[in-house]
Design a protein that fits this description.
Helix content is 76%, strand content 0%. It is mostly helical and 122 residues long.
Amino acid sequence: MPGRKKTRSTRYFLEDIIESVQKVQNYASRGRSSFLEDEILQDAIIRRLEIIGEASNQLPEEIIERHSEIPWRQIIGFRNIAIHEYFRVDLHLVWSLIESGELEKLLSVAKQILSDISNISD
């Protein structure tokens, strides 16, 4: 269940998701072999995926429900594994996620939600 403890505005969590997806895309542009060989690159990408998971966990339930095309539970679940069971993180699965197109979909949805929120509060 996504977290309900709201310490920051939803806008900031969406901005964190957007920034982190863009950074993962930038880092991943170095390619699969670089990712698999470079521990610093692995750490950077996994850290950003953790941020995406934590920020997703802080979104209001109505956003989660309204955007069921995003696998929110899996995103949050990855964060939990990366933080609490870091020894289970499979680099090949992380790279599969990067290649899957799911991050692009998440980026698009997060930008749309942020735009909708901005239009409401303007």
